[in-house]
Amino acid sequence: MPRYVIERDFGLVDEAEMMEIVMLAKAVGLEHFPDITWEHSHVCADVAGTITSFCVYEAPSPSRLREHADRLGRHSVKTIHEVIGDITPDDLRV
User: CATH no. for residue 67?
Assistant: First the structure.
């Protein structure tokens, strides 16, 4: 199944609000989107405190990921990119 990186904008939320959103995202996924698998997320803050996440999912299509995001609410999807490969430092010989 294809894998995607989703860039999400949560605006100004505190740690408790972010945890609430993450728990809701997991519940929505399990209940309504069994064909989507959440691998992991990187949650980042800019200097103003705006929260952006970069989430890796297995999913049948970007449109299915947008359906999940729309059901979740409380954020906007900035971009969805298909993952075409992974590289780690261990993969490289120097």
Answer: 3.30.70.3090
Residue with tokens 């309504």: 32
- As for how many domains the chain has, the answer is 1
Name the strands in the sheet holding 37-45, side by side, starting at the edge strand that comes first in the sequence: 37-45, 51-58, 3-11, 76-82
Global pTM reads 0.89
Q: In terms of C-beta density within 10 A (0-12 exposed, 13-18 middle, 19 or more buried), how is residue 58 classed?
A: middle
Count how many Cα atoms sit within 13 Å of the Cα of residue 54 in the half-sphere of its side chain: 7
26-50 pLDDT per residue, tens: 999 999 999 999 999 999 999 999 9
Domain that holds residue 86: 3-91
The residue written with tokens 């979740």 in the block is 72
